Amino acid sequence: MERLKDKIRRCGKIASGNVLKVDSFLNHQMDIRLFEEIGWEFKKRFADVEVNKILTIEASGIGIACMTARYFDVPVVFAKKNKTKNIAGEVYTSQVESFTHGRVYDIMVSKEFLGKGDRILLIDDFLANGKAIEGLVKLVKDSGASLVGAGVVIEKGFQPGGDKLRRQGIRLESLAIVESMDEQTGLIVFRE
Ligand code: 5GP
Asked: Which residues, 6+ apart, have CB-to-CB distance to 37 below 8 Å?
């Protein structure tokens, strides 16, 4: 997706720890025209499969998931980062190791909104080590729903998540794959 890559080149900032900051259009301020194009691109890439629900993770995945859901005409469910422990039994849970904060947190989805018969497309903003997507995959599996695939806006191809998920047979569509980024020069190279 050329417009997305251009935007990353122009507005992305490379921070320490292999973090790409895209706060001006994706993670803080949101460019809704670009979000529309992203949503449409996911729809095109998954046009051949039936999807009845989109699952994402709070907070940064929600905006993208909502724009994507408009084109599939399906609801969005977002996994909550759980704080309360007294809801066991009514929810599916899994654990995610945060790439940006370096700690492990619980995510959960109510059993009311995920279950057998659902055909789930996962959507998230970034893919690094794959922990967030793996956490969502576990929720889908535990619920008995079918996983159709996963769409991420930016995959950092020099980190292991993408290859790991593809090896597991997950259909993964990344709209921009960063092959390398240099904190000193600011140069970002994309996979063709
Ligand atoms: P993973 O679980 O694949 O290691 O990391 C993906 C999650 O960490 C995403 O949901 C995203 O919120 C965050 N993340 C990972 N790498 C980056 C990055 O370079 N920039 C930003 N803004 N978020 C990232």
From this structure: 1, 3, 4
